[in-house]
């Protein structure tokens, strides 16, 4: 449990009375780095401009303008810029508890209660080129607007829009019911969370495959196959990718030399660090640092 909590996002999104928050994210020169994490809240994401890379559980995809995604409570996810590609996206993060009714009616028993208990899931992708998706997107944009203005009753309006979104999903039969296969996937994702949490906690040190395999109770050979099948990267590829993303953060915001960043993120060989950095970012660490010095 301790390791899993390393990946849990404990950020307070809103307040106890208003447990939601909207993040409007604009990255003109790329640089968006949101490593693997999970939270109890539901997250709705709309890409207004540009493109970026998103992973939800084991599925990684490039996402583009006008696409809309749902991240369920406790789902592991990460988001990154694609090189220096610009992007604008909006994320609504809210506690699913705000949907709950005191009166246990049909809506509560058939939709809200199962959502809260994770036996009913939102679809990950909303097709905005279809009528139902266009209606959902319109409601999401209304949420953005009323949150910005915050006239009396704005929170009621937000909740009304969320209920309307749920009703559209129900009408289109797009909710996902937890099946045996999904429960098995959920168990596997818990194992992945343990391994990734260990990497995030120890990335500055040497990490051995035998150590990672021990964390999840597998032999090293099986663990490597399991990790690659679940994450679509080998453990070493994931470790290096995470280290480079942490290097991006340091180069964006701290006055450190390339060698200092290299050592801080766990690389021992500067030449290897520069090669991997260039492969991932299409520029050297020094070029990357200079881009953000000019902003």
TrEMBL record:
The keyword Cytoplasm belongs to this UniProt entry's keyword annotation: no
Keywords associated with the record: DNA-binding, Transcription, Transcription regulation
One function term, GO molecular function aspect: DNA-binding transcription factor activity
Domain HTH araC/xylS-type: 193-291
InterPro entries, alphabetized: Cupin_2, Homeodomain-like_sf, HTH_AraC, RmlC-like_jellyroll, RmlC_Cupin_sf, Tscrpt_reg_AraC-type_HTH
Signal sequence segment: none
SUPFAM superfamilies attached to this UniProt entry: Homeodomain-like, RmlC-like cupins
Designated name of the protein: AraC family transcriptional regulator
Source organism (scientific name): Clostridium pasteurianum DSM 525 = ATCC 6013
């Amino acid at each position: 449990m301790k390791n899993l909590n390393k990946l849990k996002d404990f950020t307070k999104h809103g307040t106890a009375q208003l447990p939601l928050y909207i993040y409007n994210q604009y990255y003109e020169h790329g640089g968006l780095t949101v490593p693997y994490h999970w939270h109890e809240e539901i997250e709705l994401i709309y890409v207004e401009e540009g493109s970026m890379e998103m992973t939800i559980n084991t599925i990684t995809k490039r996402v583009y303008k006008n696409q809309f995604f749902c991240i369920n409570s406790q789902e592991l996810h990460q988001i990154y810029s694609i090189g220096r590609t610009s992007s604008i996206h909006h994320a609504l993060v809210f506690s699913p508890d705000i949907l709950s009714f005191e009166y246990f009616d049909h809506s509560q028993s058939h939709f809200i209660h199962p959502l809260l208990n994770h036996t009913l899931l939102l679809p990950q992708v909303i097709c905005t080129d279809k009528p139902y998706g266009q209606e959902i997107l319109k409601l999401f944009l209304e949420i953005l607007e009323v949150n910005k203005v915050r006239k009396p009753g704005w929170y009621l309006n937000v909740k009304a829009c969320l209920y309307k979104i749920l009703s559209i999903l129900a009408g289109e039969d797009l909710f996902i019911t937890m099946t045996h296969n999904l429960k098995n996937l959920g168990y596997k994702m818990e194992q992945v969370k343990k391994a990734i949490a260990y990497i995030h906690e120890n990335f500055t040190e040497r990490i051995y495959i035998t150590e990672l395999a021990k964390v999840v109770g597998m032999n090293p050979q099986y663990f490597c196959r399991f990790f690659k099948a679940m994450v679509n990267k080998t453990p070493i590829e994931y470790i290096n990718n995470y280290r480079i993303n942490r290097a991006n953060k340091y180069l964006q915001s701290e006055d450190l030399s390339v060698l200092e960043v290299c050592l801080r993120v766990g690389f021992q060989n500067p030449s290897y660090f520069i090669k991997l950095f260039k492969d991932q970012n299409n520029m050297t660490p020094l070029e990357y640092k200079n881009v953000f010095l000019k902003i």
